[in-house]
Amino acid sequence: MALYSYEIGTTSSTTNVESLTVPVNPPRGEYVPWSRTYDRGDALVGADGYPVARWKFDVLTQAQLGQLRTSSGVSGKSGACYIVTRTDAGTFSKFSCVLVWPDDQMARRAFNGRYLDLVFEFRKLVLIPPP
Fold first, then answer.
1. Is the Cβ–Cβ distance between 55 and 27 less than 8 Å?
2. DSSP 3-state assignment of 86?
């Protein structure tokens, strides 16, 4: 049974990462309700843009990495997919988004086909309302 509700898929019918054919440990999720911040003229800080989520994995095997690539349907550097991730309210919600694969993936390759400290960024999060 899955402990967390992190899910990924090519359609809005997503699958829990812990229940994939090659199970993946749940990530440490980060959610930011805007994509950019800027200093305003009145000394306040403004923020706008789509929400962004990041999934941080301490360790992924080559097989788990391949499973995430297959399950997301994103074979290139970036592409559209669907996720369920924890929001800043502490609840899990479903989004359509753009997944950006880590730039430093090969630099994070360690021993025995393992990758350390990979961060996947999900941009342009658009909430999919529950049925």
1. yes
2. strand
